[in-house]
Each structure stands twice: as structure tokens, then as C-alpha cells.
Design a protein that fits this description.
Blueprint (H helix, E strand, L loop, with lengths): L4 H16 L6 H8 L17 H13 L6 H15 L2 H13 L4 E4 L14 E4 L5 E11 L6 E8 L2 E7 L6 E5 L9 E14 L5 H37 L1 E2 L2 E2 L4 H29 L5 H27 L10 H13 L4 H11 L7
Parallel strand pairs: 1-4
Antiparallel strand pairs: 2-3, 3-7, 4-5, 5-7, 6-7, 8-9
Length: about 350
């Protein structure tokens, strides 16, 4: 995929902001100056009306910097869940604030370590006045402890459905989870007869989540490629500076081979991620296959390149003073997010009609 001039400008703008503002402080300028939160939101709801290719560009840059801003959880998961629900009233009510970045959204979905939409076991029972009562425990909720909008997947009589739950309502207990990757905040959300409002049609949640899963995998693959490419850049620079036996370590043939292998992994992963983004942008029927392939390939490539980064940096690579350990932790955390590589290979095999071994 060759970027358009406008997409290249977007990349440059995001990189410039991330260069000036570190950590969570980058969210406000990213949303106010560039409008990243509303890139994929239709114009009728206050967004820019762009799509998956622009999201890909943003996430590559966020991945390069291991940025902790709530883009993936809010601007991808929640926005796409609302759009896929087909609930025009909910979209009109919630998307403008999400698009502006003034409110962060969270999608509470995974349970017991599973991202399979059919595995949702949280229960939704009818309440008074057309409301619902949601009971269950959700894990790995991106930005769930700080979000102002909470969407919850739960099982009603018609199947899995999606509900908007007031974040400070009775029966809602949100707690930050302790994770290996400190650059990505997650929460555990426990719901005990919490009041909910149906989003979309009852029983349509599994279809919505299956679509969101594909888009999430495509988006995360872009982030993983950006981070893996940055690992390689840092390691190449270090190999040219670090001297042993009176010569840079990058001049040794064994090191060259390892760096070349890492380059192949990064570029192969980039191709897989771009393929998934193109499928997401064009409503391609191959989206599920491409997203599953990208999530598997990019997870394993990022983990391998981050590991080589630590190995080739030697002792400094495992110190707090160097960023190598942060990329390594992000790599292994991201590999499990939205399901591990083996599960996505099983999804791909099932979609192709091949035997499934997962």
C-alpha cells in the first residue's frame, strides 16, 4: 500500500506531536490538533470520515513510541462497535464526544482470557422501564478504569447483545489490572445487576463483536509493525556504535545475519498488516482471513525482533535505563491481546475449511 500525500502528512503530524509530548500528555494535542480520535467516525457524527488506512498510519506511529494514549480501545474498539451495531440513536448520542477525544470509551468484552464472541457468559436480564440488569466479570478492558463510556457484551435470551452501562452506576466495580506491559492500561470490570441500555438489536452482539475483532486485529497488527520497526532501527544504530575487538559489532557477520533476519520479519509483518488494513478499508469478504493472518504474523514477528533487540544490546538491554525491556513487554502483551497467535491460526484454518488443532 502506497500512502497518499494526505496520509504521509498525517504520519508526519502524528510523529511530530509524539516527539513533543510524551506519554498520556500526547492525547490532548493528538485529538485537538490532528483529530485522531475522530478519523474513522463518519462526518455526520462529528468525525473526519476516513477509514482503516488512516487508522493504520496512526497506530504505526503510536506503536513506534509505545504511546499509552487510549486510541486502540476508544477510537477503534468502541467506535467500530457502535457503528457496527447500526443503532443510529446511540451513535448520535455517543460518537461526537468520542470523536472529539473529550470522552474515552471502553469495550468490556473478554472473559476468562477468551476473546471469542461466542464465549461471552455475562448475563443480561430485563429490568424495569425497558432497562437491563447486567451481571458478570470482564477482563482485559482497555482503558476501562478511566473511561467515560462503557459498552458491555452480555448474553440475553436472544443471544449475545451489547449494552451501554453508566460507568459510575450502582453495581459497577472497575479496577486497574496489574499488567506486564505498563504502557497499556487495562481493567477488570465486575458487574452486579448493573443497569444497562441496549445498543443495537438484541442478539446481534456476536455479529458485532466478530466484526470488531477483525478490525481490532488489523489495527493492532499496524501498531505491532510500527513497534517492531522501531526496535530494528534502535538495534541497527546500536550495532554501528557498540565496539568490541576494536570494531563495531554490526560489522561481524553473525550480527549481520541476525539483523537481516529481523528485517525480513518486519517487512513480512508489514505486508500482512497492510493487507488486513486494505481489507478493512474496503469491506473485503477476506477480512477475517487477512486479520487473523496479520494478528498471528505480526505478533510473532514483533516478539522475535524485540527479543533480538535485547540480545544484541547485551547487558544494557535488560536495564531500566534502556527502552528495550519496554518493547519486549509490549510485544508479549500485544501477542495475547485479542487472542494468541495460535488461536488466530485456528480461526484462519476454520475459515479455509482446514482441520483445526487449537
Amino acid at each position: 500500500m502506497r500512502l497518499t500525500e494526505e496520509q504521509e502528512e498525517l504520519r508526519s503530524a502524528v510523529r511530530a506531536v509524539l516527539g513533543r509530548h510524551r506519554g498520556e500528555a500526547a492525547w490532548r494535542p493528538l485529538t485537538e490538533q490532528i483529530g485522531v480520535a475522530g478519523l474513522a467516525v463518519p462526518e455526520e457524527y462529528g468525525g473526519a470520515g476516513y477509514g482503516a488506512r488512516e487508522v493504520h498510519v496512526v497506530l504505526e506511529e503510536l506503536g513506534r513510541e509505545l504511546s499509552p494514549v487510549p486510541y486502540l480501545g476508544s477510537a477503534v474498539l468502541v467506535v467500530q462497535a457502535l457503528l457496527a451495531s447500526g443503532d443510529a440513536a446511540a451513535c448520535a448520542r455517543l460518537l461526537p464526544d468520542l470523536a472529539s477525544g473529550t470522552v474515552v470509551g471502553a469495550l468490556a468484552w473478554a472473559e476468562r482470557g477468551s476473546w471469542d464472541p461466542s464465549a461471552v457468559r455475562a448475563e443480561a436480564a430485563p429490568g424495569p422501564g425497558g432497562s437491563w440488569r447486567i451481571t458478570g466479570t470482564k477482563e482485559h478492558v482497555l482503558d476501562g478504569a478511566e473511561a467515560g463510556i462503557l459498552l458491555v457484551a452480555a448474553r440475553s435470551g436472544a443471544g449475545v447483545s451489547l449494552f451501554e452501562v453508566p460507568v459510575d452506576g450502582a453495581g459497577v466495580d472497575r479496577g486497574a489490572a496489574v499488567t506486564m506491559d505498563s504502557t497499556r492500561t487495562q481493567a477488570r470490570v465486575v458487574l452486579t445487576a448493573a443497569e444497562g441500555r441496549l445498543v443495537g438489536a438484541e442478539g446481534e452482539g456476536e455479529r458485532v463483536l466478530a466484526h470488531v475483532l477483525d478490525l481490532a486485529c488489523a489495527a493492532l497488527a499496524a501498531e505491532q509493525v510500527g513497534a517492531a520497526a522501531r526496535c530494528l532501527e534502535i538495534t541497527l544504530a546500536y550495532a554501528g556504535e557498540r565496539v568490541q575487538f576494536d570494531r563495531p559489532i554490526g560489522s561481524f557477520q553473525a550480527v549481520k545475519h541476525r539483523l537481516a533476519d529481523a528485517y525480513v520479519l518486519v517487512e513480512s509483518a508489514r505486508s500482512a498488516a497492510l493487507g488486513a488494513s486494505l481489507a478493512a478499508a474496503g469491506d473485503d469478504p477476506e477480512l477475517t482471513r487477512r486479520a487473523a493472518a496479520a494478528k498471528s504474523a505480526c505478533s510473532e514477528a514483533f516478539s522475535a525482533v524485540a527479543g533480538e533487540m535485547i540480545q544484541l544490546h547485551g547487558g544494557i538491554g535488560i536495564t531500566w535505563e534502556h527502552d528495550a525491556h519496554r518493547y519486549f513487554k509490549r510485544a508479549h502483551g500485544a501477542a495475547q491481546l485479542f487472542g494468541p497467535p495460535a488461536w488466530h491460526r485456528a480461526r484462519l484454518a476454520a475459515d479455509l475449511g482446514l482441520p483445526v488443532t487449537w
